Structures are given as C-alpha cells and as structure tokens.
Amino acid sequence: MTATALAFDLGGTDLRAAIVTQAGEVRQALTVPTLAREGVDAVLDQMTSLAKTLMAGTDGTIAGVGLGAPGPLDPLAGIMVAPPTLSGWHDVAVVKRLSARLGLPVFLDNDANVAALGEWRHGAGRGFETVLFVTVSTGIGGGVVSNGRIFHGRRGLAVEIGHMTISGFGPTCLCGNVGCFEALASGTALGHRGADAALRPGGEKIAAAQSAIGRPGARAVVEAARVDDPVALALIAKEAEWLGIGLTNLLHIFSPDIVVFGGGLSNAFDLLIGGIRSVVATRAMSAYRDVVIVRAGLGTNAGLVGAAGLVFTPSSSATREDRHQT
Amino acid sequence: MTATALAFDLGGTDLRAAIVTQAGEVRQALTVPTLAREGVDAVLDQMTSLAKTLMAGTDGTIAGVGLGAPGPLDPLAGIMVAPPTLSGWHDVAVVKRLSARLGLPVFLDNDANVAALGEWRHGAGRGFETVLFVTVSTGIGGGVVSNGRIFHGRRGLAVEIGHMTISGFGPTCLCGNVGCFEALASGTALGHRGADAALRPGGEKIAAAQSAIGRPGARAVVEAARVDDPVALALIAKEAEWLGIGLTNLLHIFSPDIVVFGGGLSNAFDLLIGGIRSVVATRAMSAYRDVVIVRAGLGTNAGLVGAAGLVFTPSSSATREDRHQT
After folding, report:
1. What is the residue-averaged pLDDT of chain B?
2. A-B Cβ pairs (cutoff 8 Å, strict)
3. ipTM
4. Most buried among A139, A200, B143, B167, using CB within 10 Å?
C-alpha cells in the first residue's frame, strides 16, 4: 500500500488540501476560499472538514499531516505567530490543536520552507544536496534544504532573504529600511517601476497592458516585454540586475548546488535568466559562477507536495517533540 | 584514558600544532614559522615532524588529525585549492597525503569553519543550536555550525560573507565589486579610513598611534579611540555601523542563536558592540533583535580546538569518505 500524507497549503486567499503520496503524487486536491477574517476556529473547522472528506475517500493509512502556512511562525514550537493575512491568528498552537482534532501527528513549516522542501523532494531540486529556493512575488522569500533538512535557525526564522540589505539607496521597504532585496527586486517593485514608466513617453505599451489586465503590476511589464517593448525590456533588465545582485550574495552565503526560482515572477524566468546569469558571472567569485539556476518545477503544487514532505522526511521537520527525540 | 586528537592550524605565517583532548584542552602546543614559500613538501615535512614530536610525548591513542587551513579549499574532497598565502599549493590532496604520512584519518576544513566549530564545542557558542562565527581582520570570513554540523554548501564554499554586497557604493573590493561587506567593514577598511584621517586636521592622535605602532592600520584607530580621540571614535562608530548592517543581513539569513565575533578586530569588541547593537535594533525585524552577540572565547586557540573538533564530531566534518558513510 502506498504511504500517504494529508497536506494543507494555508494561504490568506485559498486553503488547499490533498492526499499526497510518498512519491509526491497529489491526489484529490480540494480548494476552498480561506475564511481568513473569521478567526482561528473557523479555519480549523475548514481544515477538519476538508480532512474528513479526503480521508473518507482514501483506502490507505495517513502517515501524518503536513501544514504549510504563512509566517511568521515557529516551526520548532508548532505555533503560528502573527500571519498578516489571517485575522485573529496570534500565537496559535496550531500543531497541537490540529493534531487533537485529527488524531494524527502534525508537522508545520512556513510556506517558503515547505516549497523548498517540495522542490528538493520532487521538483527542480531533486537529487541536489543543498537547494536554495527563492520565491519572488509580492515580496521575496526563501528556503534552504541541506542534507535533507530545512535550514531553520533560531525559532525557524532563517532565510528571511527579502530584508537583506543590498544597496544604500532605493525605495523604503515596509520594514523601514532602505536597500532591502525585496524593496528593489520583488514583483511589487517591478510593478511600481512599470507604473511609473507607463506615465512617461514611451510607456504606452506598458500602459496598454495595465489597462488590459485591469491594474498596474509586474505582469503588465512582463506582457509588454513579451511583445518586445523596449521600455519594458529595460525594466526587465534592471529587475534581473537586482535579482542577480541578491542571488550573488546568496550564492556566497549558502553555496547551494542549485537555485530554484519560484513565485509569480517565475513566469518571466525566461526573460530574466539571461540578465541574472550575466550579473552572477560578473559579480560572483569564480567558484560560484557555474551554479545551476532553474525555474521551480512544481508550480502551484509545491506547497502541497512540500507539506507532505514534512511528514515523509521527519528529520527535515522541527517540531519540538521531533527535535527532542533526535 | 582521555581521547585526543592531533590538531594543526596552518596559516601563511605560522604553523601551529597541538594535542587536543576531547574536552577541548590544548596540550603541548608547538608553533613554527610556516615554510610558506617553499612548496607543498616542505610544509608537509614540517607537519610530519611536529606530529612525530607531539605523538612521542603523548601516552594515549590519537583518534585522528584535524587540519584548519586557509581557503579556498574543498573540505568534501579534502583538497586545498589555491591558498593565496602558500606558494605552490594548487589543488593539493592534503587529506590523502597527510593521512598517508601519519597513518591516521585526516579531517580538513577552512580556518573560519574550524574556528566556528571550536567556538561551538568549547568557546562562546557552547550549548547553542545555530552558531554564526564572524571573523573580522584583514578580510571578513565566517562559519556556521547548526545542529552540530558545519554548514558547508556546495564544495564547502558556504558562508563566504566577506563578499556579500551591502551597499551600492564604497571602495572597490579585491574581488572587483563595489559594496562588499569586507571592503567596507574589515580591519583593513578601518585602517584605510584611519590613515586618511591621520593626514587631516584632527587626525594627530591617530597619526601618533600609527607612528608608535610603526604602520597605519585598524590598531592605530582603536588605540586612539581608547584615549577618547573624537576622530577615532567617529571612525569606530562608522565601522560599527557597517558591521551592524552586514550582521543584520546575516541575522535574517541564518537566524543564529548566537553571533560569535572573532578575528583581530574583536580586540575592539567593547568599543564596537554598542554601535553594532544600535544598528541591529534599528534595522533588524523585531524577532531578530535580541540575538546574543558576543566576543569569541577561545582566542588564538580557536583554530586548534576547532581542528580537533573535526575529529571528535565526525558528522560536522565532510570528507568524501565520511559523507558517503552517512
């Protein structure tokens, strides 16, 4: 019989759940809009209900429950601290509460770490010893899997790469500093530069893309670049430069065997990778220049596959109980 | 009988060797000037000779040989690649050659990783799960020990923190980039700023310290600061700011339980720590602000104690043989 896990990908918009096999196969995925404004119990009720539906439809044993959730959270203590997209979730012992409801061991980690684990187990990072997963969307996040373990650091707070200072100038970040990787290189940052360009002469193609999409954002810049708009291409080149500077730092810091590039902006990976590689070739020390940089392989399933991975690679996880046994 | 290891701390100036107990006690340390310009065999002869002297004086069994050496080197393959301070050392399979000479297993790692391991086992980082060791001297290096293992990354090249870009301006680094942590915050950088200040009005105290020492450098700035020279104190404050910016990045990236500050500039730790903490308190996200930052505890013995640690914590080491067994 195939070993399976129950996997949850909890976001501020959608709550996804599935049975996932040890081989990374996603079965019976269900998605519901997260009751994000209705507090902890409402969401735990949703999860319990999804679990019952999924478990009723499976004939095998469920080895455990994996939960990928928005940070900040403490995977070591099994506590979600204060996710900005979920109202009322302050210091919630979600591992304990969900485990009591489902009668199964629960493993928690933040969404970027879970996606990193998923890409290492079954995606673009498979077979590599040290995998750096970087997700570039609204913000920039990351996760490192090394020797089969998520690199957690104190309170599971490691690889908060979005707030790495890479410049002495630039827009002020939400964190209050200037020069954060995220403030310069996130999809949001690219979208802002696109919105500015759309107001200036030459920005007509970007402006048209914004109108067609219904709002400004990175996607409008990417779509204009895909029809060879020179202004959009210049913005993409600048975006690749900032990404390259940040990634070069991370190459020196983690020396990954592979960089897996995910998040919304990975849809423009083909447009960005040339510029990123050029910056790495210029800025990285020679021993780091040939590191493989690829687009994430699991797409929207990374969260589910990775959450199941928390169950199947227990040493990768770090619930307090588990750590004390090792 | 106490388990002991034979430890080498190989530098471009000095070669140190000692018997080190499993408890981290350094016995019979010997130091000779490294025959750095005379090639590989000359240095291996020195090591063999020191080993024989030390082993003749010990009554117990030597569990193995630990070697801390200048990078770049590949601890996984046991190869020293091209240390700039040792002539003729290009792609030397030092683990294999030294093991053949001494008839003992040999464990190799770079000096910053070895010092990190030493501080974790027996120094300021003892008892902490994730230790970030930062050494600030001529350059800036680092090592991370997490869950009892040195964080190596591909080819053992991780934690090359000196070439992390933290600014868009500043002096050009030896690596060719602008804005490297090392180019802005190393002892060398502080010494250059001191030498500039010494030539300007108000720089008399620093100039006097340079004359007394015999050359410009960070030490002259530190000595002038110790007698409350305002120009030197301003340079120390700027140095602390750069160190704080770089350390804040590393707090977000590694989330260490403790930062252990070593290297030559750790002699000025008391002068720097206030400014460093102030920058961390301003720039780090709140969850990272209370991380302990302390001065290294082992001083010049960190290399020897850490090299022995490679023998006594085999999972921390990463020679190819060892890794393939795990």
Report:
1. 93
2. 120
3. 0.89
4. B143
